[in-house]
């Protein structure tokens, strides 16, 4: 009886894992929606003042920097299975708004400003196990294009003390192509509905440029920022 009971439990476990008939087979399309958590591992080079009033300066301010704070947003993805094990996925979403905080000598100012990050990606994935398996881990490799909007310096106290009283500073950040490294898994609730969780690492760097207008004098400066976010995506998907 004990042996029979153990066999029944084992059979039940196998059925639980393989009960979805061809849920992720060749030709399947899946749309998913969920929660993106974007967690930068950021750092910035010291700020360099390039020119003052059009005159080259090239002066670096030591022990200055900034970091990008984590943010949450809505994510969307479309996946197509080319074979039972290989899929391609387009990933996008509402751009997260990140706060930017000072570090080093700039830490005293707290939040310096904010920026929105746009990072759509194309990822090719290899899914383990066969198409009938409910739980399917995968690994992925892809490419991402990142650009930035609404780059805003909001801390006037920072601008007043570091540049000139009453000065106005604007910012911009350079876009870039970047690799995407991805791991995750999906679980088939039935033949059409899925839940999934993935973790991606995207090594992103950008050159942030600043224009400060202090009366009639224009000050140009820049820094290089490494963002290097880890991005988690908890989602619900539908197969059609």
TrEMBL record:
Q: Residue span of the signal peptide, if any?
A: 1-23
This protein's source sits in the domain of life called Bacteria
Query: Keyword set for this entry?
Result: Signal
Report the locations given in the UniProt record.
Cell outer membrane
UniProt keyword Metal-binding, yes or no = no
The record's Gene Ontology biological-process terms are: transmembrane transport
| Pfam families in alphabetical order | OmpW (PF03922)
The uppermost taxa in this organism's lineage are: Bacteria, Pseudomonadati, Pseudomonadota, Betaproteobacteria, Burkholderiales
Q: Name one GO cellular component term.
A: cell outer membrane
The protein, known as = OmpW family protein
Q: What organism does the UniProt record list as the source? A: Cupriavidus nantongensis
Gene3D superfamilies in the cross-refs? 2.40.160.20
């Amino acid at each position: 009886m004990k042996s029979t009971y153990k066999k029944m439990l084992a059979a039940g476990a196998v059925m639980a894992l393989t009960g979805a008939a061809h849920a992720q087979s060749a030709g399947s399309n899946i749309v998913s929606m969920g929660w993106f958590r974007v967690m930068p591992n950021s750092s910035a080079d010291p700020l360099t003042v390039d020119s003052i009033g059009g005159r080259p300066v090239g002066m670096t301010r030591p022990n200055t920097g900034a970091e990008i704070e984590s943010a949450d947003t809505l994510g969307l993805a479309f996946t197509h299975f080319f074979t039972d094990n290989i899929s391609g996925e387009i990933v996008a979403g509402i751009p997260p708004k990140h706060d930017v905080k000072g570090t080093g000598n700039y830490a005293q100012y707290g939040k310096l400003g904010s920026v929105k990050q746009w990072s759509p990606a194309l990822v090719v994935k290899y899914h383990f196990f066969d198409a009938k398996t409910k739980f399917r881990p995968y690994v992925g490799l892809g490419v991402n294009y990142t650009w930035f909007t609404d780059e805003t310096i909001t801390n006037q106290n920072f601008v007043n003390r570091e540049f000139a009283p009453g000065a106005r500073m604007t910012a911009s950040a350079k876009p870039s192509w970047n690799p995407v490294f991805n791991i995750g898994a999906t679980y088939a609730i039935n033949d059409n509905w899925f839940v999934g969780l993935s973790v991606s690492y995207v090594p992103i760097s950008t050159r942030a440029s600043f224009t400060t207008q202090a009366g009639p004098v224009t000050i140009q400066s820049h820094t290089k920022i490494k963002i290097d976010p880890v991005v988690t995506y908890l989602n619900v998907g539908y197969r059609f």
